[in-house]
Amino acid sequence: MTSSLPSSPTVRTTPTATYRLQLQPDFAFSDAERAVPYLAGLGVSHLHLSPVLEAVPGSTHGYDVTDHRAIRAELGGEEGLRALAATARAHGLGLVVDLVPNHMAASPTHNHALRAVLRDGPDSPYARWFDVDWAAGDGKILLPVLPARLPEVRERMRVADGQLHVDGLSFPLRAGTEGLPLPELLDAQWYRLGWWRLARTELNYRRFFTISELIGVRVEDPEVFDATHGTIVRLVRDGVIQGLRIDHPDGLADPEGYLERLREATGGRCWTVVEKILTGSEPLPPSWPVAGTTGYDALRYVDGVFVDGIGADELADLYREFVGRAGDRGGSWEATARRAAYEVVTHDLDAETAALTRLADRICAAEPGLRDHAPWALRTAIRELLVRVPVYRFYRTDAASVLTPEAARGAKAAFAVPEEAAAVDTVRELALGTLGDGALLPHEHRAFRARFAQTSSALRAKSVEDTAFYRYTPLLSANEVGGDPGRPAVGPEEFHAYCLRLSRDWPATGTVLSTHDTKRSADVRAGIAVLSQCPSVWRELLDEVAGVPAPDPHLAWTAWQTAFGFGTPDPERIGPAVLKSVREAGLHTSWTEPDPAYERAVTDFVAAGPGRIPLRAASEAAFALEPHIRAHMLGATLVQLTMPGVPELYQGTEREYRALVDPDNRRPFTVGEDDDLTALVRAALALRGLRPEVFAARDSYVPLTVTGAAAPHCLAFARGYAGSAPEVVTAVTRLPLRLAEAGGWQDTELVLPPGRWADVLDGEREFAGGAVKPVDLFDARPVALLSRRA
């Protein structure tokens, strides 16, 4: 096997633009290789591949890693990956790979490291890979994998080939136990097989969020890091991989320490971004040795600048009126999120809070000044503090500013007996790492601080992304990771301020509009966001379809808005997305406690209404929105492609791309027909490729002045070198429906920087520097991309 790839043509270390491909058995390395000429012609500089390490057979996503030593055979193995890299390099493209450090598949059949632990117990050299509380399980790992209680499946168990088999699963046997009678054999193992429902309360290993099928990995251990990263690091050093996307760093015990170790291992040769979800104005820790985030923060700002705040508030009022108490009590976003957090921390994450309670209890029992905290008081304090963490997690540098004294006071209010509330102070200091000097139990002090932060990120993700986002739905386009459904609109000044910060601090960060994780693609969100400009049209549409009976008004609102954004009736795709939404919401049915009658009613409703009726053509008013939706799609795309950062295109989004929540958005990649969106993408990427320094330089973002009655409807900025004349100008139309209602552009003017400017989207047009009227700039399309003439 070759040790490295040819060095030419040159591949940039920092991408100018990436293109995400979802690999799976139906779209392997060879399929991606055949797509390379098309993608190179599109203008991207790097292909971004979903996880490539060995995974559970048949996995369509690859995040369920089973063996870090090998490149996934179903995709073509290392030979196939190297062939793809060689073809990509021949076309001037590099590879960025999605790396999953936090977890791997908890598959006793396929995970070689876990099998070794199940066979050999805590003395296995692989035992250090996983966060297992052996004491909590009476010396055993609970495996909640059985479809029913143990007595109900015992008759289906058999021993063969040195393994225990049941219902298609196989488990290794502890040495010397193979010949025992079944009851004794089960008791003799290092694991306890259990009903899957036991995971919620009795699980004794760290998992990914609430997914027991994914077990956490202790990459903070240097030996575990080396074992789990050796293959990827080797491929980086061989020149096969030029960039890394780090999945869910908040799940790690020490994200910054991990990233520093990764930089050292790769020799700093990689463009590295992290899937860090920032809340509100939360900054990315400046000390992290990365180029930035994967771009969910940019998604929020780009989406928000195309939302009308006044109309969004009107929609929220209409939503509460329409839904009443059928939703999550028809309350505010903040109240909905807080209720969801309490539910998740006391139900879904019960095993995690129990683990924290055991750890806190051990620490308190060993330190005389902390004794006599009742376990229930510690557990209450843990829960009350967790729900008051306003971000996904805190770090060593910002812990005190996140887990504040105010949060502690709020947590204490939950105690009926004030004396018991002292547990809050103990838990808070343990979480902050400020309780004493930690001399007696330094390891357990550190372990509690890390585990509390890890649980905090799981709580935020599960309660906000996977619960509250499905319960509070006035404007579904705002309900994406990193978004704020309570404040979906972003004004031009706020957007400019964000871009100035990026250009100054993180010029090579990632930006995205659609991903494999977005609940709705950017084009679906554009269709929904236009409703913020016309709440009255939405009210009329709901009145028109009121004759289709829905199981409840919250479902009706959500399903019809989903269908409106999707644009065309398609029960085969809208139906599963709506069904997933009601399960995630957990108001009437859920994944673990399904209500078959309610779910049948949901399916029937979608088939009769949202999956059958073309809502966007249901009335003249709705049909008239199509040009405004298109303006949003074009504007958002151009802004993302030219704002600070490295833009990523998700597979298929170079043209109109309508997709709903996974698995709908993870279908194999295909090349579709070009449209006006494709032409815009090609033009913007070509300009980035020709003038990369203009877009990559720090402090290269300049907001442009717009004056006149309709100034808020024009978003414009320039890109160039700090301290010199700008080289590129982006201008887009905001809220075009509101603009038309207000009488159009009237006396509005955009002030271009000095010089001559050529329209990149239309080579026949030029503009002189100085004041230009948007009515002239946007006469052919609602967006403009200008490049300075030499």
Structure, explained:
The chain is of the alpha/beta class and 790 residues long. Helices cover 41% and strands 15% of the residues. The strands form 6 sheets. Strands 16-15-14-5-2-1-18-17 form an 8-stranded parallel sheet. A hairpin with a 2-residue loop joins strand 9 and strand 10. The protein starts with 17 loop residues before the first strand and ends with a strand. The relative contact order is 0.09. The model has no long low-confidence stretch (mean pLDDT 94).
Radius of gyration: 27 Å
**Unreliable segments of 5+ consecutive residues:** none
> Spatial order of the strands in the main sheet?
16-15-14-5-2-1-18-17
Shape: globular
What are its keywords?
8-stranded parallel sheet, alpha/beta, 790 residues, 29 helices, 15% strand, 7-stranded antiparallel sheet, globular
Write a concise synopsis of the structure shown:
With 790 residues, the chain is of the alpha/beta class. Helix content is 41%, strand content 15%. The chain has an 8-stranded parallel β-sheet.
Secondary-structure blueprint:
Layout: E1 18-21, H1 29-42, E2 46-49, E3 53-55, E4 65-71, H2 77-90, E5 94-99, E6 103-105, H3 112-120, E7 141-146, H4 150-153, E8 158-160, E9 163-166, E10 169-172, H5 182-187, E11 191-195, H6 199-202, E12 207-208, E13 211-216, H7 222-237, E14 243-246, H8 255-266, E15 271-274, E16 292-293, H9 296-304, H10 309-323, H11 333-348, H12 350-366, H13 375-386, H14 399-402, H15 405-412, H16 422-432, H17 442-471, H18 492-505, E17 510-511, H19 522-529, H20 535-544, H21 553-566, H22 571-585, H23 596-608, H24 620-623, H25 626-642, E18 646-650, H26 676-690, H27 692-696, E19 701-703, E20 706-707, E21 714-720, E22 726-733, H28 736-741, E23 749-759, E24 766-772, H29 774-777, E25 783-788
Parallel strand pairs: 1-2, 1-18, 2-5, 5-14, 7-11, 14-15, 15-16, 17-18
Antiparallel strand pairs: 3-4, 6-13, 8-9, 9-10, 12-13, 19-21, 20-23, 21-22, 22-25, 23-24, 23-25
Helix pairs in contact: 1-2, 7-8, 11-12, 11-17, 12-13, 12-17, 13-15, 13-16, 17-22, 19-21, 19-25, 22-23, 25-26
